[in-house]
Amino acid sequence: MSKAVFTSPQEVEDAFYDAFARADLEAMMVVWSEDEEVICIHPGAPRVVGLAAVRDSWRQMFASGTRMRISVSNEVVSSGTMMAIHCVLEHIQVEGDNEFHSPIVATNVFMRGPMGWRMVAHHASPTPEFEPLSASGGPHIVH
């Protein structure tokens, strides 16, 4: 499979979530930088560093046969000419499961190189259970 040239971080992110939803390992790896410093952290899993390890983590995930529908919301973007960071909420529905699941908070980091934009980091974590706001309208805990 030839490497696509992504002209924006958003193109990379769209291709990432499309490959994720289709459980397409080759399409997934097209979005990643070929640098060995890439990092991937799946929810509840240890940090994976290096292109071969990232590839293997996605291979294992896709091998389960579970297919998911994924939508992204609440995107917060920080972008420059060479690097972009997208912090999003991933809403995942497992095929055949109608149960409501809490969103996953994810941070996707992209770098621009000779072949366009590529993903260099994906960190996804479960969101905590949120308490309703207090009567005063403020949070119960201030960080």
CATH topology: Nuclear Transport Factor 2, Chain: A
Broad structural category: alpha+beta
Number of structural domains: 1
Please give the CATH class: Alpha Beta
Element pattern in H and E: HHEEHEEEE
Strand content: 25-35%
State Rg: 16 Å
Topology:
Elements: H1 9-22, H2 25-31, E1 39-41, E2 48-49, H3 51-63, E3 68-79, E4 83-94, E5 104-113, E6 116-126
Parallel strand pairs: 1-6
Antiparallel strand pairs: 1-2, 3-4, 4-5, 5-6
Helix pairs in contact: 1-2
Characterize the structure shown.
With 143 residues, this protein is α+β, with helices and mostly antiparallel strands. The protein has a single domain (9-126), classed as Nuclear Transport Factor 2, Chain: A. The protein is built from three helices and six strands; from the N terminus they run ααββαββββ. The protein has helices at residues 9-22, 25-31, 51-63, and strands at residues 39-41, 48-49, 68-79, 83-94, 104-113, 116-126. A six-stranded mixed β-sheet has the order 2-1-6-5-4-3, with helices on one face. Strand 1 (39-41) and strand 2 (48-49) form a beta hairpin. The longest helix has 14 residues, at 9-22. It is globular and about 45 Å long. The N and C termini lie far apart (46 Å). The model is unreliable at 131-143 (pLDDT under 50).
